[in-house]
Design goal:
The chain is of the alpha+beta class. The protein has one domain. The protein is globular. The longest helix is centred in the first third of the chain and has 25 residues. 30% of the residues lie in helices and 28% in strands. Strand 5 and strand 6 form a beta hairpin. Strands 1, 2, 5, 6, 7, 8 and 11 form a seven-stranded antiparallel sheet that branches.
Length: 283
């Protein structure tokens, strides 16, 4: 008798669990993917820049850098390729901001200035490539025919980021500081078997900070630390090389140095920034 009562109670308990699970599914409740509910947005605002007077700037130089997202340290800018779990790549964040109207792209100019504003549709239209090919039909008489192949804009081909930043020494604070002026996504294309960079547009960084401060970037060291793209730029959590400094000829390093000499020249420019501040305090 006791065994019968135990079996009835056991099956009743299992039926109760199944009924509860079924009710949860039927109610449309979505399973929680993680320790807590998260919509992927960061409730942050960009940290305001300290006030700056023109009279306090005793030294200034503009530097242009390149962030190659294929480097291991810079991979959080490139991935994920497809947005998932509320993570978006840097290029996806930029394109979403342009589409929403919160970021204004500017046309590429010879002087890297923000002169001609663009819109989302103009950017997409400019990246439609047309390739004329001569193909052969797969059925008799296997005659050749001319065709045009269209390729649409592919954000995954954007593998570099150019940064225009202003370095200066504030004598009021006795500190070397910097301000990022603009950011330019660069698409890598192929022609005749060789890869070459093609800049897309410039983004004025002070305007885009609001968007970057709310976009979550993957933190490989600690995912509990919710880090934004704006914090990554301000804390210099990336690897880069200098490809240009302000000069009287307005030329890039690649125009007067190549190969190893270009790399050494890039390191020289970066070291000068730190040596200048160090020499001010040398006794």
């Amino acid at each position: 008798m006791k065994k019968i009562i135990f079996c009835i109670a056991f099956f009743a308990l299992i039926a109760g669990f199944n009924l509860q699970a079924t009710s949860q599914v039927m109610s449309g409740q979505q399973p929680q993917d993680g320790l807590y509910e998260d919509n992927g947005m960061i409730d942050k605002r960009p940290i305001p820049y300290p006030p700056l007077r023109k009279a306090d700037i005793m030294w200034e130089k503009i530097i242009w850098r390149v962030i190659d997202m294929r480097q291991k340290l810079n991979q959080p800018f490139y991935y994920p390729i497809e947005p998932h779990n509320d993570w978006r790549s840097f290029m996806q964040v930029v394109m979403d901001g342009i589409k929403e109207g919160s970021i204004t792209p500017y046309d590429i100019s010879a002087t890297d200035e923000f002169l001609v504003p663009l819109n989302y549709q103009e950017i997409i239209t400019r990246q439609i490539d047309t390739i004329h090919r001569t193909l052969k039909r797969s059925y008799p008489p296997y005659e050749e025919f001319d065709t045009v192949i269209y390729s649409e804009f592919d954000p995954t081909r954007v593998m570099r980021i150019r940064i225009k930043e202003d370095w200066f020494f504030d004598r009021q604070r006795s500190q070397m500081m910097f301000r990022i002026i603009g950011i330019c996504p660069v698409m890598m294309k192929e022609r005749d078997g060789e890869e070459f960079p093609e800049p897309l547009f410039w983004v004025w960084y002070p305007e885009a900070r609001e968007v970057f401060a709310e976009a979550l970037v993957f933190n490989r060291e600690n995912q509990a630390e919710r880090r934004s793209y704006d914090e990554v730029f301000q804390k210099r959590k990336f690897s880069s090389f200098v490809y240009k400094e302000s000069n009287v000829h307005d030329r890039r390093i690649s125009e007067y140095a190549t190969g190893l000499d270009a790399l050494l020249e890039s390191e020289r420019v970066k070291n000068e920034l730190f040596e200048f501040e160090h020499d001010l305090w040398a006794f």
